[in-house]
Amino acid sequence: MIAMFRGILKSQKVIVICSLILCVLFLMALFAPWLAPNDPTAVNFVDKLQRPSLDYPFGTDHLGRCIFSRILYGARISLGYAMLIFMSALSIGLIIGIIAGYIGGWVDQLLMRLGDGLMAIPSLLFVLGFVGIWGTGLKQVVFGLILVQWVYYARVIRGMVLSLKEQNYITAAKISGSSTWTIMQKHIIPNVLPSLVVMGTLEMGWAIMNLSSMSFLGLGVQPPTPEWGAMIHEGKSYIRTNPALMVYPGLMIMLVVVTFNLLGEALSERYGIKRR
Question: Which candidate, 113, 168, 174, 260, has a CA 20 to 30 Å from the CA of 224?
Answer without folding.
Answer: 260
